[in-house]
Structure formats: structure tokens, C-alpha cells
Write a structure and sequence with these properties.
The protein has two helices and four strands, in the order βαβαββ. By secondary structure, it is α+β, with helices and mostly antiparallel strands. The protein has one domain. Strands 1-3-4-2 form a four-stranded mixed beta sheet, sandwiched between helices.
Amino acid sequence: MAEDCCSFQLISGDGVLKVKGLENFTRTTNLAQRRLSYAVVAIIGPQSSGKSTLLNKLFRTDFWMMDAHGGRGQTTQGIWMGKGIGIEPFTIAMDVEGSDSSERGQVQIN
């Protein structure tokens, strides 16, 4: 029987915490009962560098990935959180928006 992957957007591209998604994730994964018996892995890096692809391959998550034929561009916005499949201890993978934010435009501080 295959485990279900459970991923959701934790923080929107506008910086809003998605409380209902977090509550649902906590409930469906029994996170509270795990106490301190879990691991968290996050990946950061420039946009379109393969962060989502790496997480999906290593942890069997289902984060949305860029279509190589569609050209390069921002796919992940904000922070996404997913349950790693078939890994002990229970592992939470976090996919973070590209650190260079080239699709958003940079805010320059003088």
C-alpha cells in the first residue's frame, strides 16, 4: 500500500501564513503525536535551479516543477511543505521560493 504524499503552501507568495493548511497537515500526518520524533529539511537557492525536483526525487514529495519545454521561470512562490514518503523518522520537506526572486523584481536599498 503506497503512502499518500501530503503537500501544501505554508506561506503564500505575499507572505501570508496558511493556517488552515497547516492545521490540516498536522491533523492528517498525526504530527502532534510524533512529539520530537521528526526531521525537517529545507532547500534554498536561486530560481530554476532544481530545488523542487531534488526534493521530489529524494523525499517522494509532489511539489510542482518547472516544465523544461516551457522555458525557465518562477514556479514555487512562498514556502511549500510536504511529507516525505517512506522515510524514518517522519520527515517534513520544505520547498522555498527562489532566493533571487527575479520574477518578482528586486527591491534595491540605497
